[in-house]
Design a protein that fits this description.
- By secondary structure, this protein is an alpha/beta fold.
- Helix 10 links the parallel strand 9 and strand 10.
- It has 15 helices and 16 strands.
- It is globular, with a radius of gyration of 24 Å.
- The strands form four sheets. It has an eight-stranded mixed beta sheet with strand order 5-12-11-10-9-6-7-8, sandwiched between helices. A four-stranded antiparallel beta sheet has the order 13-14-16-15.
- The longest helix has 27 residues.
- It has three domains: 89 residues, Winged helix-like DNA-binding domain superfamily/Winged helix DNA-binding domain (Arc Repressor Mutant, subunit A, Orthogonal Bundle), CATH 1.10.10; 239 residues, Type I PLP-dependent aspartate aminotransferase-like (Major domain) (Aspartate Aminotransferase, domain 2), CATH 3.40.640; 108 residues, Aspartate Aminotransferase, domain 1.
């Protein structure tokens, strides 16, 4: 047992070396829980990393790793020459996250009801912006297909077919293949701080399928939905198709502006956010904003959809913990996808459903297409269980960091004054800001004519943006391809800036 703070003797760390959870993660989890429960108050001074390591009998680097992650997520603040403190910027009235484990069956609570479509689906008995051609730079959401372990994947599929093909031929469970659900629950618990059990996991045909299913199950016509602006067009289309009213929630450097969203509409039925890596601008939602968002949802009686579409790819520090892990009321519906991590055509995503929603969403999943191919789910479960998934992610982080740097270098070399490309600590794309007065749709069209695929920021926006920008994907392209495409883009943007001759 080790003390966290000399002024708080009951807040201590107990390390369990018999479990698989790394020691730095155990320290991180227990410190975060102490802060969120109020046992460590804002402004409390912590022991130094050297002192705490000595008390715990572990290496100092282990404690440093935990402190660095807490500092990155704004739980801690450092004062040069004075030590490490619990951040004073945490809103005291919002620190209500509970440490209780997720119960499979929650007690009856005042939660939002299902939409008319969702109610019909729950009562129904269960029976037995298009791209074409090969991806070109800088098409987004394209993983490094050249680096995928094809041979291993092929062996896993063949082995599954040879060993248990007959077992996989009948219809499977609408919620998905149970071994895969177990692997996903374990993976998310260990790497993303998601609190869940396998019985909360629903396998979908990708994240877009998950969003459409949730929109139909949760929304009635005219229901208000907070949606990030700029934000993901796929989510916007899914919600709008139900007849919902979209409330644009502005984005600033801290992520979604909760106060501005409340001023526009204080009682949404649904809130859609991308807190780990805002789509498409790329910032991470700060801790204070996360807590404010949970508080706003609680007051409004709203569900929150957390779309964690590419959180695996963070190049500075560890991936940040999910919003769902802070949710003490089980209002956050967590959505993820494997299409960006592995390859697009795998078409497997997942929903981590609050217990109150699970049964209805499984019925809705059955009506929407029953299941994803069981053979692929089984091979994927093997891929994760054998450690190949984790190895692939680690390899891609290194590769993608190199490719991002290649794009930054090429942009600096070729596009000075034409496009200001911002570095990002995470994700699969970068944002390039155009000079004032340049229309980003015109710039996108000019790039397309030059053989380069870029998407204008305005395509992601409901309300007009103050400055035009282009979204550039880099993960699916080699440094040579990136360099050639940057040169073409620079030529197209240069022509766009030339003054037009008067008739």
């Amino acid at each position: 047992m080790g003390k966290i703070s000399a002024s708080l003797t009951d807040a201590s760390i107990a390390l369990d070396r018999s479990v698989a959870t790394p020691l730095h993660r155990q320290i991180y989890d227990q410190l975060r829980e102490a802060i969120l429960s109020g046992r460590l108050a804002p402004g409390a001074r912590l022991l130094s990393t050297r002192e705490l390591a000595g008390e715990l009998g572990i290496g100092r680097n282990t404690v440093i790793n935990a402190f660095d992650q807490l500092h990155a997520e704004s739980y801690l603040e450092r004062r040069v020459g004075d030590g490490t403190y619990v951040s004073r910027q945490l809103p005291d009235d919002l620190l209500r996250a509970k440490s209780d484990r997720v119960a499979w069956r929650g007690s009856k609570r005042n939660v939002p009801s299902l939409s008319r479509w969702g109610a019909v689906a729950a009562a129904t008995p269960i029976g037995p912006g298009e791209y074409k051609g090969r991806p070109r730079p800088f098409r987004t959401s394209v993983p490094a297909l050249d680096a995928f372990p094809y041979k291993l994947w092929g062996r896993l599929l063949a082995r599954r077919w040879n060993q248990s093909g007959r077992e996989l031929l009948p219809y499977g469970a609408a919620a998905g293949y149970l071994p895969l659900r177990k692997e996903i629950a374990s993976y998310l618990s260990n790497t993303r701080g998601v609190r869940c059990v396998p019985e909360q996991v629903i396998i979908t045909s990708g994240s877009q399928s998950a969003l459409e299913l949730l929109a139909k199950a949760l929304l009635n016509p005219e229901d208000a939905v907070w949606i990030e602006d700029p934000g993901f067009p796929g989510a916007r289309a899914a919600f709008r198709a139900t007849g919902a009213r979209l409330i644009p929630a502005p984005i600033d450097e801290e992520g979604v502006n909760v106060r501005a969203a409340i001023e526009r509409h204080a009682n949404p039925r649904l809130i859609y956010v991308t807190p780990s890596h805002q789509y498409p601008l790329g910032m991470t939602l700060t801790l204070s904003r996360r807590l404010a968002l949970l508080e706003a949802a609680s007051k409004a009686g709203a569900w929150i959809i957390e779309d964690d579409y590419d959180s695996e790819f963070r190049y500075v520090g560890r991936p940040l913990a999910a919003l769902q892990g802070l949710d003490s009321e089980q209002r956050v519906i967590y959505v993820g996808t494997l299409s960006k991590v592995l390859f697009p055509s795998i078409c497997i995503g997942y929903i981590i459903a609050p217990p109150d929603l699970f049964d209805a969403l499984v019925v809705a999943r059955s009506l929407a297409g029953r299941q994803s191919p069981t053979l692929v789910q089984a091979a994927l479960a093997d891929f994760i269980r054998q450690g190949a998934f984790a190895r692939h992610i680690r390899k891609m982080r290194t590769l993608y960091a190199e490719r991002q740097q290649a794009l930054l270098n090429a942009g600096k070399r070729e596009m000075e004054g034409l496009l200001d490309i911002e570095r990002s600590d995470a994700g699969m794309h970068l944002i390039g800001w155009l000079p004032e007065g340049i229309d980003d749709r015109e710039a996108s069209n000019a790039a397309s004519a030059a053989g380069v695929e870029v998407t204008p920021l305005s395509a992601y926006s409901i309300e007009p943006q103050q400055r035009g920008a282009l979204r550039l994907g880099y993960t699916g392209y080699t440094p040579i391809e990136i360099s050639h495409a940057t040169r073409k883009l620079a030529t197209a943007l240069t022509r766009l800036r030339r003054p037009r001759r008067a008739d």
